[in-house]
């Protein structure tokens, strides 16, 4: 079996080092963004909790509960990054990167639980909505919104919220919380203007439904990675076609593409070549195609001729 980390071309080694450094730089940025967001979120959580008790606002109390889950999710994401940086071992040959995906899955599930709690609590308030100190509630919600936006901005600026599912799950917690703050402000305006106190539970339910939508996306993506699904940015058929178009290749089989963690995809396949071809040249071309066209660095490619016989794999 030929493995591209094993060949000793200095250029390839330089490319691998550069892409590894970029991967680590992104992770360092993710860590910084999470620390800033965690500090801001924890401070505002206490403000909204005590503010909700004083003003008797469910919108504020639910927002502070969401803030608690935000702080927990940010802390969990930070722990996951720390855990993932531990070296691989003979028992964990891929290291601990998958811990990030488990953290993202947990964050997605916790968003579901919070949204469910908000809906349940709001349903009890529809029939008899309590009066709320809407002016104070709006001031506190506005402070919460500002904090959420600063936290979200620090994650976007320092980290990779688009491609890293661990960071994305924490980011969605914060965005959901920003929606909660906006909802509390809108409810406050309606209550102050019209004395319409039912606005508090109505808007709480609306925010909860938006949170559920985000949570479902995170849960689905996390499970897809844990089930060794093909990365969403890569089409398996396109990879197969690209490799089979290399001169001297008869077919590509037993092809697998999966994610170890966000931003770190892995690939393996068997390549059947014509008997008169140089397997090492074809191997190098295949490595180049995978890196340049599909941005896959971690590849394991078995070059075979017609003489090689092996059992058909079950997957």
According to CATH, what is the topology of the largest domain?
Answer: Alpha-lytic protease prodomain-like
Strand percentage, roughly?
5-15%
User: For the residues shown, what is the average pLDDT?
Assistant: 84
Given helix and strand content, the structural type is alpha+beta
How does the overall form come out from the CA principal axes?
A: elongated
Keywords: Ion transport, Membrane, Transmembrane, Transmembrane helix, Transport
Membrane topology: Multi-pass membrane protein
GO molecular function: zinc ion transmembrane transporter activity
Organism: Paenibacillus crassostreae
Task: Tell me what you see in this structure.
- This protein is an alpha+beta fold and 315 residues long.
- It folds into 2 domains: 203 residues, Cation efflux protein transmembrane domain (Alpha-lytic protease prodomain-like), CATH 1.20.1510.10; 69 residues, Dihydrodipicolinate Reductase, domain 2 (2-Layer Sandwich).
- 67% of the residues lie in helices and 10% in strands.
- It has a 4-stranded mixed sheet.
- Helix 1 packs antiparallel against helix 2, helix 3 packs antiparallel against helix 6 and helix 4 packs antiparallel against helix 5.
- The radius of gyration is 25 Å and the shape is elongated.
- The N terminus is likely disordered.
